[in-house]
From TrEMBL:
EC annotation from Swiss-Prot or TrEMBL: 3.5.1.9
Signal sequence bounds: 1-23
Record protein name field: Arylformamidase
UniProt superkingdom: Eukaryota
BP GO terms, sorted: L-tryptophan catabolic process to kynurenine
GO MF annotation: an example: arylformamidase activity
Amino acid sequence: MTPLYTLTTTLLTLLITCSTSTADDAYPSPYTTTCDLNNIPTPIRSEVYDNGRIIDITHRYHPEMPSWGSDEGLGQFLRLPNSMKNGSRSNVSEMKLVTHTGTHVDAPGHMIDEYFDAGFDVDTLDLLVLNGPALLVDVPRDSNITAEVMKSLNIPKGVQRVLFRTLNTDRRLMWQKQFDTSYVGFLRDGAQWLKDNSDIKLVGIDYLSAAAFVDSVATHRVFFESRDIILVEGLKLDDVEAGIYSVHCLPLRLLGAEGSPIRCILIK
Ligand SMILES: *[C@@H]1O[C@H](CO)[C@@H](O)[C@H](O)[C@H]1NC(C)=O
Ligand SMILES: *[C@@H]1O[C@H](CO)[C@@H](O)[C@H](O)[C@H]1NC(C)=O
Ligand SMILES: *[C@@H]1O[C@H](CO)[C@@H](O)[C@H](O)[C@H]1NC(C)=O
């Protein structure tokens, strides 16, 4: 039999280390662990699965992740209109999210209005481009992605999917809530070079935009013009070796939307 004092000590410890849940705690920070008096284990959140064979390159959506143009981050994007604590039969959350939040995909309608009107939304994106062999490359850290940089990467012809890891990853920009305009992205001549001299159809990048902040619209338009290049932005490329993987990215089928959150994984 467990001596009573041990039980009491255990209970006391639990009471001291566990914070009681309030309405504001419905969506706790992903960085703090809470514990449960009912002996429910803490959920496991993983970056890799199957001993590292499957790598999640999607950022977790949370209030303190960066959001385009904001100093305050994404903010509380989930609410709980129905809650069991308030007598509902179940907890049902609702979300309000700019479609270009976190790890996301752009459709051609994002910056070419005629394409938006014509219906080139995320539901029309080619899943074959978003899924298949992919190359993860490191971009020289001293420059934005220009034609010269693209040339220097020596990406072989025939490679259709490339994830570009840049200074953004070293600077951990996707982990900082303040939006930073000095992120690295493509300049217009870099985008043009990619279009004219490579077979790349999937462009992945490690901050919220594939195009550098300066000249962002013009650079996006170079990518979107032919409607066969897909941009996946805000990827989590930390702690992944450069090389060849199988990439799998699936956007939501949002009819009429020019962007969508996307879940992307790499498989070794
Ligand atoms: C429960 O209802 C109260 C009053 O409407 C509200 O203030 C509170 O936020 C609700 N709690 C949750 C968890 O939804
Ligand atoms: C939702 O229901 C679960 C299960 O009963 C409960 O643990 C959780 O605290 C509830 N969340 C809210 C915010 O009421
Ligand atoms: C890339 O361009 C941005 C402006 O869009 C600039 O602030 C930044 O310093 C450039 N980064 C590098 C490494 O040249």
